[in-house]
Structure formats: structure tokens, C-alpha cells
């Protein structure tokens, strides 16, 4: 078994993090002496934030990081990221149930993505100033409480507001990935990261499939009740077994560092813009696909369960993700070239899907497969490019800056894609938006070479071999997962020339 590795240079007030049993019991007994709702809420909070003795962090003797911890964190990421995707295959059903238009119902995924982006800014940097355990438990508990409103409300504005708010605290997947990268031992880190990434991908796939299938036979509300049950289950499991990891810097310092990272590193900005464009195509496809396949004006009119089965396309990302990392991105070595390859695959698929979609279901299927392959290749290459730019920077802050821009792209794809679909000509019009986004991404890729130190240009040439080699070792980026791996903080990343 592996011992948990230090997450980063974090300063703590003591070697052990977590309230002692005697103090917790005293606090609970004191709250029993008061009456009213405040005493009830304080007791609930005392239970949620109580740290069992086996979960307390002791720097001198940290708890072991075991395989079942890894499975638990992957399960937590998958069950919570599913919250964002239950609505995708049933947007047409929600529009009928809430008596609204396609443009109106498309606000649901738009607001959920906007809420997720808000959570990346407001919540994720808290991992650098307070223990991760109470952040995670607090987010899941808060989401579960408000999720009851999504299960029961018949008022569309209320459903929209709750969708936005619950998405803010659905940031557990972005907490789990960098967390595991810091906890796993170097020799097991690649497998641990891949397990969490696969858990997140599996959560998206299962959410789309089960939502479509369940809604075809019973009310869509049952899938939301199922989502509530999963969140409660994860809350209990994490409360029982998630150690109370340490923390470090201030909140404002963490936010300001993200701004400085974007100002300082041209490669980070370049990757953010290209990721934004890729995300536009991703959400534009998945949200307008529901309207294409359910609309009587096209030769489909599929029920929700058949639309949900399109989520099986996402299985390829789980099965082929190691292949993309090792044999596509890894062989090319230069991340920019892998990104360009992924963008071209996406562009070919989008053109095929846009042209063929209104007349044959083969078009959306081919587009979905190529879009998924592109999304994985580009995602791995982006992480390879950005996570080693500044070894001293926190994973949370680099991840937050990158994912924030990425989710702005998803918001744009959902909002603009559905608006164009309804107003300017349906599937092919929204497909034109995706084609334009990909052409712009290729332009951004072309104005700055892989070895250029400045913001624009091709300084250093374009060769594959004269570059920093990304090694699967401590202090490098794991090629299969694309996640930066920090070694001892005293070491700096070295430039390695790849020999012929």
C-alpha cells in the first residue's frame, strides 16, 4: 500500500488536522443546551464536519492511500459530474413538461455550465486555504439539499435558479483529479489518475443513458431522485473514509495567482482559447442533438431512451483514453501537434455530421465518435502543455484557470448553439457555429509555434525532436493522463533534449 504523498508545500498550524473527539462531543453537548432552528442546524453541521479519528491528518504518520480510496474518489467524481448531464437527452421532455420553447429549455444546461464555472472560481481555490474534506462534504451536502427542489418544483424559473445554484457546488470532479495526483505514490500515480478520469467519463455516459431510458418509461423526475440518492450515498462514504488533507495559502492569493499565470504564460492562454473553441463544439453537438433526433421535421422522432443511448459513444473515451495518450499524444511528443491533429479530427467529424445529419442518422453517429476522440486527444495534449509551465504553481490554480475558460466555451456552445438552431435554420446552422469555432482554434494554433517563448511567432523552429521531453516520472507530466506530477519541491523541472 502507498502512503499519501504531500500535496504541495502547505503550512498547517499543527501536525494533526481534525477536531478531537472530546472537543466535538463538547461542542455537540453545548448545542443541545440551546433551542430553536439554529441549534438543529449547528448539530447537523457538527455531524457533517466531524472528522472520525481514522480520517484525521497527521503529518508525522499520514493515513495510507489505498486502492479503495482511489475507487471512492473516482466514484465521487462520477456521481457528482452526472448532475450536469441528466438533462441533455430529455430537453424536449422538459420543454413539454414546463411548457416552454427549445430556446427556453436550453437555458437549463447553459445555467448549469455557468454555475459550474462559477464554482470553479469561488470554491476550487479554497483547496489552497482550508482542508479539502469539509469543502467536499459541504458542497455535496448543500447540493443534495437543494436538489430536492429540482425533483419537486413545477415552476420553470425556480428550476432554472436551482439548476444554477446546485451546479456551483458540483465541483467535486475538479477536486478529485488534482487531489489524487498528489496523494498517489510515483509508481502508481498514472493508474490512480486514469482511474479518476475514467470515473468522471463513466459518470457522464451513465447520466445520459439512464436519463433517456428512465424518462421513456416513467417520469423524468425519477432520474433526478436517483441523482439525489447517489449524492447522499457519496456524502456518507466520503464522511466515513475521506482523510482531512492539509491546506496552505489565502483565498485571494490563490485567485490572484490564477490571473498572474494567464498573464505570464503564453502557452496557457493559447491552450485556454483552443480548449474554449473545442468545448463550443462539444456542448453545441450534445444539446442540439436532442432536438434533431426528437423533431418530427427530420426523419427520426426518436423516444428519449434511444436518444439517451447515444451516450454509449462516450464509452470510447473510457476504453481508448490510454491509447490516445500513449500512442497518439505520446508519439507526437509536441503537444501542439497533437492538438492540431485532434482539432482536424473534430473538424472532419463536424462537417460530416452537419451535412449528413438531417438526412441520415449515420451523420450524428460519425460526428459523435470523432468528436469524442478529438476531445480526449486535445484534452490530454492541453494538460501536457500547461501543467509543467510552472512547477511551483498549485494544481488547483492551474486547473481552475484552464477549466474556467473551458466551461465558458461550453456555456457559449449551449447558449449560442441552441439559439442558432431555433432561429436560423436548425441542425446545419448550429453545425456551422462549430465549424467556425474549430477554424478559429486552428488559427490560434498556427500563430504560435510549439517552441516559441513569445506570444506570437515560430521561434525555435517546428521540429518534433528539439523540445522538452515529457517523461513519465516525478516532476513531469504523465503521458497517458496528461496530469502534471510534482516531485520534491526543491527540484525544478529540467529541459531535456530528445535525441534522434
UniProtKB/TrEMBL annotation:
Residue span of region Disordered: 1-39
Key word Cytoplasm present: no
A Gene Ontology molecular function term of the record: transmembrane transporter activity
Listed Polar residues bias regions: 11-22
Keyword vocabulary terms for this entry: Membrane, Transmembrane, Transmembrane helix
Subcellular location: Membrane
SUPFAM superfamilies: MFS general substrate transporter (SSF103473)
Main location: membrane
Record's signal peptide: none
Pfam families in the cross-refs: MFS_1
Membrane topology type: Multi-pass membrane protein
Biased composition range(s): Low complexity: 29-39
Transmembrane segment boundaries: 71-88, 108-127, 134-156, 162-183, 190-210, 222-245, 266-293, 305-324, 336-359, 365-389, 401-421, 427-447
A cellular-component GO term for this protein: membrane
Entry-linked PANTHER family: MAJOR FACILITATOR SUPERFAMILY (MFS) PROFILE DOMAIN-CONTAINING PROTEIN, TRANSPORTER SCO4007-RELATED
Protein name: MFS general substrate transporter
Origin species: Rhizodiscina lignyota
Amino acid at each position: 500500500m502507498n502512503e499519501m504523498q504531500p500535496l504541495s508545500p502547505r503550512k498547517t498550524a499543527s501536525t494533526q488536522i481534525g477536531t478531537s473527539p472530546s472537543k466535538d462531543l463538547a461542542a455537540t453537548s453545548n448545542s443541545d443546551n440551546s433551542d430553536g432552528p439554529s441549534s438543529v442546524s449547528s448539530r447537523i453541521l457538527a455531524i457533517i464536519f466531524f472528522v472520525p479519528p481514522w480520517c484525521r491528518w497527521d503529518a508525522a504518520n499520514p493515513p495510507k492511500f489505498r486502492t479503495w480510496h482511489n475507487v471512492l474518489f473516482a466514484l465521487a467524481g462520477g456521481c457528482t459530474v452526472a448532475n450536469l448531464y441528466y438533462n441533455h437527452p430529455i430537453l424536449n421532455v422538459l420543454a413539454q413538461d414546463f411548457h416552454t420553447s427549445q430556446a427556453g429549455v436550453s437555458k437549463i444546461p447553459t445555467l448549469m455550465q455557468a454555475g459550474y464555472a462559477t464554482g470553479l472560481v469561488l470554491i476550487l481555490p479554497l483547496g489552497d486555504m482550508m482542508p479539502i474534506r469539509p469543502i467536499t462534504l459541504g458542497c455535496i451536502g448543500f447540493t443534495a439539499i437543494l436538489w430536492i427542489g429540482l425533483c419537486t418544483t413545477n415552476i420553470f424559473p425556480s428550476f432554472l435558479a436551482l439548476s444554477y445554484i446546485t451546479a456551483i457546488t458540483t465541483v467535486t470532479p475538479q477536486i478529485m483529479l488534482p487531489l489524487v495526483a498528489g496523494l498517489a505514490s510515483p509508481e502508481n500515480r498514472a493508474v490512480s489518475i486514469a482511474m479518476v478520469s475514467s470515473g468522471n467519463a463513466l459518470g457522464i455516459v451513465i447520466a445520459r443513458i439512464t436519463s433517456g431510458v428512465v424518462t421513456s418509461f416513467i417520469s423524468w423526475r425519477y432520474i433526478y431522485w436517483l441523482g439525489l440518492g447517489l449524492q447522499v450515498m457519496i456524502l456518507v462514504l466520503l464522511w466515513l473514509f475521506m482523510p482531512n488533507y492539509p491546506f496552505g495559502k489565502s483565498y485571494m492569493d490563490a485567485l490572484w495567482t490564477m490571473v498572474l499565470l494567464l498573464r505570464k504564460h503564453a502557452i496557457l492562454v493559447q491552450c485556454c482559447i483552443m480548449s474554449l473553441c473545442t468545448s463550443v463544439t462539444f456542448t453545441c453537438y450534445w444539446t442540439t442533438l436532442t432536438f434533431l433526433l426528437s423533431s418530427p421535421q427530420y426523419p427520426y422522432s426518436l423516444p428519449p431512451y434511444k436518444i439517451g443511448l447515444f451516450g454509449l459513444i462516450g464509452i470510447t473515451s473510457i476504453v481508448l483514453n490510454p491509447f490516445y495518450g500513449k500512442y497518439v499524444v505520446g508519439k507526437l511528443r509536441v503537444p501542439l501537434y497533437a492538438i492540431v491533429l485532434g482539432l482536424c479530427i473534430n473538424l472532419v467529424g463536424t462537417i460530416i455530421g452537419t451535412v449528413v445529419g438531417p438526412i441520415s442518422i449515420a451523420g450524428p453517429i460519425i460526428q459523435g465518435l470523432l468528436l469524442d476522440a478529438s476531445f480526449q486527444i486535445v484534452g490530454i495534449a492541453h494538460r501536457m502543455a500547461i501543467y509543467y509551465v510552472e512547477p511551483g504553481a498549485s494544481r488547483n490554480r492551474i486547473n481552475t484557470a484552464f477549466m474556467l475558460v473551458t466551461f465558458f466555451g461550453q456555456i457559449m456552445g449551449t447558449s449560442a448553439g441552441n439559439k442558432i438552431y431555433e432561429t436560423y435554420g436548425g441542425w446545419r446552422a448550429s453545425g456551422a457555429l462549430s465549424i467556425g469555432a474549430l477554424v478559429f482554434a486552428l488559427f490560434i494554433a498556427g500563430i504560435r509555434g510549439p517552441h516559441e517563448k513569445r506570444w506570437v511567432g515560430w521561434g525555435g523552429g517546428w521540429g518534433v525532436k528539439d523540445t522538452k521531453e515529457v517523461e513519465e516520472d516525478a516532476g513531469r507530466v504523465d503521458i497517458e493522463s496528461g496530469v502534471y506530477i510534482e516531485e520534491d519541491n526543491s527540484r525544478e523541472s529540467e529541459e531535456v533534449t530528445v535525441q534522434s
